[in-house]
Amino acid sequence: MFRLSFQPYQRRFKQALRTHHGLWSQRDGILLQLEDERGRMGKGEIAPLPWFGSETLEEALYFCRHLPARFSLHELEAISEALPACQFGFGSALESLSHRPAASENKEALLHSALLPTGKAALTAWPALWKRGYRTYKLKIGVSSLATEQDLCRTLLSELPPSAQLRLDANGGLDAQTAQQWLEICDGSRPTSDIEYLEQPLPVNQFEDMLRLSKQYTTPIALDESVATLPQLIHCYEKGWPGIFVIKPAISGYPQQLRQFCQTHAIDAVFSSVFETEIGRHACLQLAATLSTRAVGFGLDHWFAD
Ligand SMILES: [Mg+2]
């Protein structure tokens, strides 16, 4: 049997993050501590991202508040698929409690991608990140006009050192025509290219169009919003997605199930953050250390004031 204690938290960003989903200025989440009958403690974190399809913070709080004072392993393993961030929080707390061997050496060897501020600020932000050792950068697009963003992208590419790599993330904010225009720019910068991939060009309901684009262009397309939870990821895998899968473990569901899926299917995966705290991040990076095939998207420390 287990007992739970939990604490909601808020962390403000130094500067709000602008994406196609809107402006985001504060991360709200819940820190968990599980205790078993032997007095062992395990920590976990619930970091919901409702506009990606996870539960809301309120739904997660409701779940935590309505758990019985003592509950069984069976109850922990039967959290609804509608609460993927809770599944992750409780699943990783359970792993930390039973001290699953840490892949700490691998974890430190992981390469990280740094998220640039959206728009012109990206041009002044990258040099400091370069000095801190980042070589892969991510830029949000699909926010202002196509011409403005493409100019910015060209300038950024001309300023970045040749060994840098750039990821473009549209958060589903393009249409078929603008997606093609972006992919032409991306392909045009090859073979020396510096654009690693284009992430989620079209909305989730346009899977077939993204599949078609991924066959037309050389630059890989990565699905992110389309594969937010493990059931969605499995669905796209089964429909034959040939490109990259962005995995945000904190909203994917149980880490045990994610690990099992990734270990039995050869997928090209990028592990990515949802701005969780060190507790959630540790659990995510442990998964990434064994499963990731590319630089992971956890280069976000520079976004928080604390
Ligand atoms: Mg994304």
Strand order of the biggest β-sheet: 10-9-8-7-6-5-4-11
CATH superfamily of the largest domain: Enolase-like C-terminal domain
DSSP summary, beta strand count: 11
Main sheet makeup: 8 strands, parallel
Note the total helix count: 12
Q: Regarding CATH, which class of the largest domain?
A: Alpha Beta
Q: What radius of gyration results from the CA coordinates?
A: 19 Å
Any ligands, ions or cofactors bound here, and which? Answer: magnesium ion
**Proportion of residues in helical segments:** 25-40%
Low-confidence stretches: none
- Round the mean pLDDT to the nearest integer and report it: 92
Label the CATH architecture of the largest domain.
Answer: Alpha-Beta Barrel
Please tell me the total number of domains. Answer: 2
Q: State which percent range the strand residues make up.
A: 15-25%
What is the straight-line distance between the termini? Answer: 36 Å
CATH topology of the largest domain: TIM Barrel
Succession of helices and strands: EEEHHHHEHEHEHEHEHEHHEHE
Q: Shape, please?
A: globular
Sum this structure up briefly.
The chain is of the alpha/beta class. It has helices at residues 57-65, 73-76, 84-97, 104-109, 121-131, 146-159, 176-188, 207-216, 230-238, 249-252, 255-264, 278-291; strands at 2-19, 22-36, 41-46, 112-115, 136-140, 165-169, 195-199, 221-223, 244-247, 268-271, 296-299.
